[in-house]
Design goal:
The protein has 269 residues and is of the alpha+beta class. The protein is built from 4 helices and 13 strands.
């Protein structure tokens, strides 16, 4: 979404036709495109942990029924089993949805929390964005390349207890809004994801310690009051690159985010 643009209201028919078109376009890319997608799952762990992160499974969110969060845990357990241990070989692409597959009730998925055009609603498989968010954040701390990522168009919740910069997640909708990661290095990487009683946990692992480490940070942040009455939140995400001696050798631009705020911003004096 470009800054300063009022949200577009589309008809239900147009939305359905758009989803149908992009869904089959994605299938064509998966099965007839030039990319080589990661498929190999291994229970044998690669020896070196490159980056690990965890996010809480339950948050107290205003106006969100707790049953949707408990159901989200069920959905996350099913999806995590589909990608846990996947090996991303050099030259391969990790596709979130190609591995997870379509969430359906027959597979055990239940109604969880979904965000649709800024509104919270129940949906089969709801809550899987927490998994794509985790993978995206971890990938930014590795030499792997994010080749497809979609930002959240709406900022639904205030920053209470936020530990990562605004805009550091990756939304997902089966199958056309995907998260894809390319391995352009010369060594394999392995993704590990699992759930504890309180957290969703993930790791990127590899065979040898990479020559660089990374610090992801928010470089700029601003809020604009738009002509149509709402507020849009903006920021720029970058990362500092360090060699193994701890010397900063680069400062890389990652992405820029723009999201319609679904709550009233606090404006100080």
């Amino acid at each position: 979404m470009d800054r300063g643009i009022k949200p577009i209201k589309r008809s239900r028919i147009r939305i359905q036709l758009g989803r149908l078109f992009y869904t089959y376009k994605r299938y064509w890319d998966w099965y007839f495109g030039h990319k080589k997608y990661a498929r190999n799952i291994s229970r044998d762990l690669l020896p070196v942990i490159v980056f690990t992160h965890k996010t809480p499974l339950i948050r107290k969110l205003k106006d969100v029924d707790m049953w949707m969060q408990y159901n989200k845990i069920i959905n996350l357990k099913i999806a995590a089993q589909k990608i846990d241990g996947v090996i991303l070989h050099p030259g391969e692409t990790f596709s979130f949805w190609r591995l997870v597959g379509k969430p359906t009730r027959r597979k055990g998925y239940v109604d969880g929390m979904e965000l649709s055009y800024g509104r919270i609603k129940p949906g089969v498989g709801g809550g899987l964005c927490q998994l794509s968010n985790l993978i995206y954040w971890m990938t930014l701390h590795t030499p792997l390349s994010v080749t497809e990522r979609h930002r959240h168009s709406y900022d639904v919740f205030p920053d209470s207890n936020r530990t990562q910069p605004f805009g550091s997640g990756a939304t997902c909708v089966y199958n056309y809004i995907d998260l894809q990661v390319y391995n352009g290095t010369n060594q394999p990487y392995q993704l590990k994801v699992w759930l504890t009683d309180q957290y969703l946990v993930g790791e990127w692992r590899t065979t040898e310690k990479p020559p660089y480490t990374y610090k992801v940070y928010e470089k700029e942040h601003w809020i604009t009051h738009e002509w149509w009455g709402g507020y849009i939140r903006h920021n720029v995400i970058c990362r500092k690159v360090f060699n193994l001696d701890g010397d900063e050798i680069d400062d890389e631009y990652i992405t820029e985010n723009h999201a319609i705020m679904m709550y009233q911003p606090f404006l100080g004096e």
